[in-house]
Amino acid sequence: MILDAGMAERPPILVGIDFSAGARPAVRWATCLARQLSVPLVAAHVTNEERFDWRPDQLGWMGDVGLDPAASIVQRGVPWIELSRISQTIGATILVVGSHGSSGYQPVVPGSTTVLLLTRSQRPVLVVPGA
Questions:
Q1: DSSP 60-109
Q2: Where do the structural domains in the chain lie, given as residue ranges?
Q3: Residue 39 burial (CB count, 10 A)
Q4: pLDDT digit string, tens, across residues 26-51
Q5: Does the domain made of 13-128 have the CATH classification 3.40.50.620?
Q6: Sign (positive/negative) of CA torsion 4, 69, 97, 108?
Q7: Cβ contacts of residue 69 below 8 Å, gap of 6+?
């Protein structure tokens, strides 16, 4: 989470991450947007896997773009539902996601989580294409 003095009263930006290469451009965009608007940035990873074993080194790249891995949200659930719920709960001004996630399949259209967020989220969604 990127926090500076005076940001606490401002609604944050939420960026969805899934440890894939496609998440990195979304994190970069969200970081730049949060800095330009002087608002907090919250990163959230949601997995629907029954058992999710993540290693701290999977979050290491986040520090390279200014995110604090220790302040990120990691939880289990259906990604589009939980990202939408988290964005509502924290009052996010916008939800930033990559166009394709960890499935590795990159068709012409965005990934299923992205499409569901675009069509069902109560918050604005910014979709960032992969590198």
A1: HHHHHTT--GGGSEEEES-HHHHHHHHHHHHT-SEEEEESS-TT----SS
A2: 13-128
A3: 21
A4: 988 999 999 999 999 999 989 887 76
A5: yes
A6: positive
A7: 56, 59, 60, 62, 63
